[in-house]
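Budget justification note: compute hours in this period were largely spent on complex prediction jobs such as the one shown. Inputs:
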Amino acid sequence: MDAKLAELKRRLAEVDDLRSAAAVLDWDQMVLMPPAGAAVRAERLATLQRVAHERFVDGRIGELLEELRPLEQSLPHDADDACLVRVTRTDWEKARRVPADLAAEMAKASSEGMEAWAAARAAGDYAAFRPWLDRHLALKHAYVECFEPAADPYDILLDDFEPGTTTAEVRAVFDRLKEELVPLIAALRDSAVDPLPPGPYPVEAQRALGLEAMTALGFEPSSFRLDSSVHPFCTSFAISDIRVTARYDEGDLESLFTCLHEIGHGLYERGISPELERTPLASGCSSGLHESQSRLWENVVGRSLPFWRWFHPRLQAAFPGVLGDMPLEACYRAVNRVSPSFIRVDADEVTYGMHIILRFELEQELLAGTLSSADLPEAWNARFEEYLGLAVPEDRLGVLQDVHWSGGAFGYFPTYQLGNVMSVQIWEAARAALPGLEEQFEQGDFSALGAWLRENLYALGRKLTPKETLERVVGGPLDPEPYLRYLREKYGAGASR
Amino acid sequence: MDAKLAELKRRLAEVDDLRSAAAVLDWDQMVLMPPAGAAVRAERLATLQRVAHERFVDGRIGELLEELRPLEQSLPHDADDACLVRVTRTDWEKARRVPADLAAEMAKASSEGMEAWAAARAAGDYAAFRPWLDRHLALKHAYVECFEPAADPYDILLDDFEPGTTTAEVRAVFDRLKEELVPLIAALRDSAVDPLPPGPYPVEAQRALGLEAMTALGFEPSSFRLDSSVHPFCTSFAISDIRVTARYDEGDLESLFTCLHEIGHGLYERGISPELERTPLASGCSSGLHESQSRLWENVVGRSLPFWRWFHPRLQAAFPGVLGDMPLEACYRAVNRVSPSFIRVDADEVTYGMHIILRFELEQELLAGTLSSADLPEAWNARFEEYLGLAVPEDRLGVLQDVHWSGGAFGYFPTYQLGNVMSVQIWEAARAALPGLEEQFEQGDFSALGAWLRENLYALGRKLTPKETLERVVGGPLDPEPYLRYLREKYGAGASR
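Corresponding output:
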């Protein structure tokens, strides 16, 4: 049995090495690569992904997984080796169901669709993008066909990002959010909070300050790097080699929140148990749980008053000319300003959820065929006005704004908002377990929270399902109430704003 | 036949993709990686190399190479497809001869040996390094045994770096060099030339100036990157994605010559015919020919008076405080100062060759068993004094200085000096074909030389053997006389120094 487990681990480590190599090439392309390298880089990446896939779906891995059932069943449910066999079996069975030709066509449609979208967005030309949307929808139908029928075909797509969570479960949570968010947004619409001044905030000072904040949260130079890229992201090449990127604009301080967001993702990857290295378990548990950590550090911590008590003098010292006279209270209010706007990635904590709910609903209707891609802009604009009170003036500020659909990523958007919901559930659990957290934040000490998250969440990696993981951390299932309570307390009528 | 050729190309492209991915991971490790990533990175690299090797030595590739013989023979000798089949067959037959276990043991000994060497060099403790040298020698004997007997076992090692060139041929060239270099070094020993002042040369200004010089030579930001690393190097991820690195020290201007050296390697890789992309032909022809290009741009061009007529005002503008008053003539003499010293990588154009000849001779004696590793430091020091007139005071400045032996790279050193020899042969051919080159250099115009080298040498990649390639470029075989003539004219008794 030991020899079989060793063989399984050896084969999975190889696959992990190949996938991680692809992550390095991907990161290099987005951060550093000279532009003329793009065409060949796409070939290199396709090869790595194909070879990794071939090695993963190898029949021998399936045999080993069968032969290791007795071992799996003899171990506790959360023993590393039991989890490895169980989770790998799920992954393997899923990967085997998708024919190589369909996977290749989806990958091709994804990269071509993204190119077409970039041009269509630049031109504000939805009609030019629409055929790609139809192609992706056709491919999604073919993809859904590869699996046992689900209660809702959208379940199959969602499962790739939030395994085990159903469309009905998400809908129930989102409907509850909608009940409270729509009136809260309408009530906040006219509250006049000044934003931060428009700079200039020199890029070098932004970089240094972002690094200072991230370092307080747990960024160590021995195992992290911060670089720049057009689209900020975080990726992991090993549990001890985490790459975060940010984007800088002299006219605002968004880079600071980007840093807090991406280090949240990074701390999760860095906190995975080293025993899981080079296995399929060595990554965050789901897109939603991952986002819960970027949002926890960015918003729940990084936009809190205790954080700002510590951070405000540092911010002033970094930009004395622009912010030297701006009091703590005004800064805190400015970074928590609620103001409906068109672009999701610029949205505040309160309006953000409605951007997501809108997309979640449209995705389901497109997939079900109750909404045609021809009618999508109209549907988008109508619902946007209903949810956020703004009339969309052009598709670039509406249906064309996000890259996700162009790459065929349907089912991904809802995990952003699930992340927000879970971030507050997890925060409440941490606060209950760790008295005095906010006093520590005021001193710039985030270590107790970091250690608790590492021990209770990050270390687990993908050992358990997302539902099991959340249950273990917060003692219950997905629940929108803590998040709504948090928003009401921070932004509601009685809030100290 | 077309289908077979297409299958061969598809399989070779995959291997090339995997090897290139390894190059990206390697580069990232040397340039950027946080230190804690090292252990896992070694595993990732080992997997990529193993998978690439397995795919390359696959029996199906051998079958295709056999089946494609008629095609190969129907095409001109230098047709891309004929070269692909011919060169791949040679590579494949060579790769198949080395058992996977031996290759793995050599790779392991290489990385472990380099670690042991780094510690031994830091401590100046040759005895601690000696067992690794013995281990490498034993592995080299096993490696040599994998091949048909050669006239000299060293031929087998040399063939990995300078295919087709024999030990006897190198020895004949080196013996001829020795005849002239040893007396020339002795004669120059007492010539008093002042070096450049010891700075300070701010790193940012060095970087900008290095980039300016490289740009004049052909560095384009669309397909090149310049980064920093402890050991400068050049690598290629695609014909249009070339990475060069340099190292900066405020106390000297070595970084400028490093830039000229590495861009020479880079221009070679960048100039390979795009038709050869993702084939085994898409790299420089041999270590010696590669070095001929780094040396041509660094020394023959970059230390020439015409280059300095263009470069001197730029250098003065970059460092006005330190060099503002230093005349052209004095700068030119300073960067061509001959002074025997202990460290090879710091050696000038005249003494450099003797550093190499020394190592070439000792390597052969170690391999033949006529010199024991126990007696190596003594042999090194005696010969160093004979060739360079200096008594080696400690092993750190002697036998422990280079990394090559610690990684098991025997047979590599001679290609450095072959590169110097070929660089002048190629320079003479270019100058004969292109009148007015030096006048162009004085104007900062290096494009005619670059274009000639691209057309006559770089574009060929590995299509022909190194000997065929050199013959095609210079119209004759390896010949030390142009190099000796160049040194005599530049440094001899009658030279205008």
